[in-house]
Specification:
Blueprint: H1 8-28, H2 33-44, E1 47-49, E2 61-66, E3 83-85, E4 88-95, E5 98-102, E6 105-109, E7 113-117, E8 123-126, E9 133-139, H3 141-148, H4 157-166, E10 175-179, H5 182-197, H6 202-227, H7 235-247, H8 254-261, H9 265-276, H10 280-298, H11 303-309, H12 315-326, H13 330-337
Parallel strand pairs: 1-3
Antiparallel strand pairs: 2-9, 4-7, 4-9, 5-6, 5-8, 7-10
């Protein structure tokens, strides 16, 4: 039997009030949300939801919902255009079904399931029944970075999913899907309860619970990968190659991977191109730049030392590819992204 949230009605009323306050705040600011969305849709074919629309008063986590039992109509999304965010989103289905169209692929989330969306994921979401109830847990990039920069040494797929999203590395899939077991369900419910009760230190407690949640999701993701039949699109081999590249990104070559896994370089080159939709050299470059961003934001190391650590021999070449990727120089990136130094393994 799926666990229930005891005070769900109280929390839904609080979420409804929160939504009304959001609409009032937007109106008072003279900010035309519909106009912005319309202009972006016409120009780009999608719109981007910025942090400031949801995160106020210093909070790094915001929870809202789709659907509501007291409404006669389901909370549909009438916007025919997709959208993405400046933040991460987790969609948890408490009751019913949630429909998410991500990159043209429709994901029908059943009850007690969780989908993690990266900020880059262009999607449209909706419910079809007034009985459907979905909690959207929005998390700022800064909090995700704070959590996962400490978990890098684990080198798990969920960690890489978030860090690749943070540093704009091209992803094979911009979302992760999980069917929740009892432990995950109870943990997610406790996050929702903590958020809507809003007692002292609730944001800090939620952050601690998110660390536990992401750690358990990493375990589950790894377990699912190990149980996946090897013949399905070389899934096991791809996971092992991805992990090897992450561990040896500063020195890795196609030949070293081929020797390690006992395959020919030409076969691995075709496999990587097919699975990652980019050449091996581009994949390694993206990963090196991801780690360069991490060092720039979380350390005071001189840039030429960062260049050497991540595997580049030519500083000028590094500056060129970095600016092509991020549209700013390494110095500018450091100034705009510098955080308090964190332990970097």
């Amino acid at each position: 039997m799926i666990a229930v949230i005891e005070d769900i009605g109280v929390y839904l009323q609080a979420a409804e009030q929160q939504m009304q306050e959001y609409k009032k705040r937007i109106a008072q600011a003279g900010y035309s949300l519909q106009q912005r969305v319309s202009e972006q849709n016409q120009k780009y074919g999608y719109s981007t939801t910025p942090d400031e629309e949801w995160f106020v008063f210093g909070g790094q986590v915001f929870i809202l919902f789709h659907g509501c039992p007291w409404r006669k109509e389901p909370a549909r999304n009438p916007n025919p255009y997709p959208h993405n965010h400046d933040f991460f989103e987790m969609s948890y289905v408490y009751k019913g079904t949630f429909h998410n169209i991500i990159g043209g692929q429709q994901i029908d989330q059943p009850e007690d399931s969780l989908v993690l969306l990266s900020p880059q994921a262009k999607h449209r979401c909706f419910t079809r029944s007034s009985e459907d109830l979905v909690f959207n847990i929005l998390i700022k990039r800064e909090l995700i970075e704070k959590i996962f920069v400490q978990m890098l040494s684990e080198s798990e797929s969920v960690c890489r999913f978030f860090l690749d999203s943070l540093y704009n590395v091209r992803q094979k899939q911009p979302y992760l899907f999980f069917s929740c077991d009892n432990a995950l369900t109870e943990l997610i419910h406790s996050i929702i309860e903590e958020y809507f009760q809003q007692q002292d230190f609730y944001q800090s407690i939620i952050q601690a619970k998110l660390i536990e949640l992401f750690s358990k999701l990493s375990r589950l993701h790894q377990k699912n990968a190990e149980e996946t039949p090897a013949e399905t699109s070389n899934f096991q081999l791809i996971l092992q190659i991805e992990d090897y590249i992450e561990r040896h990104y500063s020195t890795v070559t196609l030949s070293s991977i081929a020797e390690h896994f006992n395959y020919t370089p030409s076969y691995l080159s075709r496999l990587i191109q097919k699975q990652f939709n980019q050449k091996f050299s581009c994949l390694v470059q993206d990963i090196r730049l991801k780690h360069a961003c991490r060092y720039l934001a979380h350390s005071s190391l001189p840039i030429d030392q960062v260049v050497e650590i991540v595997g580049y021999n030519d500083v000028s070449h590094f500056y060129r590819v970095f600016k092509q990727k991020h549209n700013v120089s390494p110095n500018q990136y450091r100034k705009s992204h510098a955080l308090r130094p964190a332990a970097i393994q």
